[in-house]
Design a protein that fits this description.
single chain; endosome
């Protein structure tokens, strides 16, 4: 009887060690898979910097952002700055010429456009840049709770006979392009902070189907080295604390890692529970058979 108990005890201990090794291997394999998934997810979100252009100045090798960006400051009627933007911007407009070819015309945002706008309403501000026959307007709004601000609408107006366009197929048209209505929040930022992003941002503008516009023009606004703030009302006219689009220059969806982590936890729990139950009944059956 004593020898039998020793055999059972030794068998049980070996079984426990075996179970421990199996469970440890399973956990290690799942953790490796999870980490690889996170690394691949992180790599996929780090998009390469797409640049439609290089710099405004002839010195394209310059790395000084201040040399290529333009600053637009709009003051309220009391002289206090309410909108401040620093950006290296380009407008690229696709149109069709008389040869029935689709071509593009590029236009840089200038250093000294004619600025106009509104900073009267507490929940909405407007800034318009006028230059070379073009008008670029941006409508700023506050969130419903008043804790954040964002750009609600981009609008670009000009004539299709503008000298920028070479032999357009439809000259003499008044063109009005706007950002899509289904994208109502650009660059959301907490009130009191300034939006900062090193990644090049792109805003698409086109004429809605029901607008009656027959030009067929499509514009893309490229914003590089963007630093922007609305609803400032600071006597000093200086930036608020920066609110970065992300540390890597791209946005990251945090729901994917959370979902993967939750799935991993459930898988580990089910694996351990299932394997533990299977081993329990197997050992119990072996012990019962040995006792007989």
């Amino acid at each position: 009887m004593t020898d039998l108990l020793k055999i059972l005890s030794k068998t049980h201990w070996n079984s426990v060690r075996y179970d421990f090794l199996i469970i440890t291997s399973i956990l290690f394999s799942l953790m490796v898979t999870y980490c690889q998934g996170l690394q691949l997810n992180s790599l996929s979100t780090k998009m390469p910097r797409v640049t439609r252009y290089t710099t405004k100045s002839p010195a394209s090798s310059s790395m000084n952002h201040d040399a290529t960006t333009s600053i637009y400051r709009f003051n309220a009627t009391n002289g206090i700055t309410c909108i401040l933007i620093s950006v290296d911007g380009l407008i690229s407009i696709k149109y069709r010429n008389k040869l029935n070819e689709d071509v593009e015309a590029d236009l840089y945002l200038p250093d000294n456009p004619v600025l106009s706008g509104e900073c009267v309403e507490s929940n909405m501000e407007l800034l318009t840049l006028e230059f070379k026959g073009f008008k670029l307007s941006m409508t700023f709004k506050k969130s419903s709770g008043g804790e954040g601000w964002y750009i609600n609408l981009f609008e670009l107006t000009y004539s299709s006979s503008n000298p920028l366009f070479e032999h357009p197929d439809r000259p003499g048209l008044d063109v009005k392009l706007t950002s899509p209505s289904h994208t109502p929040m650009y660059f959301p930022t907490p009130v009191g902070k300034s939006y900062v992003c090193d990644k090049e941002q792109t805003v698409l503008m086109f004429a809605p189907l029901d607008s009656g516009d027959q030009s067929g023009h499509i514009a893309r606004l490229y914003l590089r080295d963007l630093h922007m703030q609305s609803f400032m009302f600071k006597e000093s006219g200086k930036w608020g604390p920066p609110f970065h689009c992300s540390a890597t220059g791209s946005y990251r969806d945090e729901t994917a890692p959370l979902a993967v982590g939750t799935a991993l936890a459930i898988a580990v729990l089910l694996t351990i529970s299932g394997y533990g139950g299977w081993r329990y009944f197997k050992i119990k059956k072996v012990q019962y058979g040995t006792m007989e």
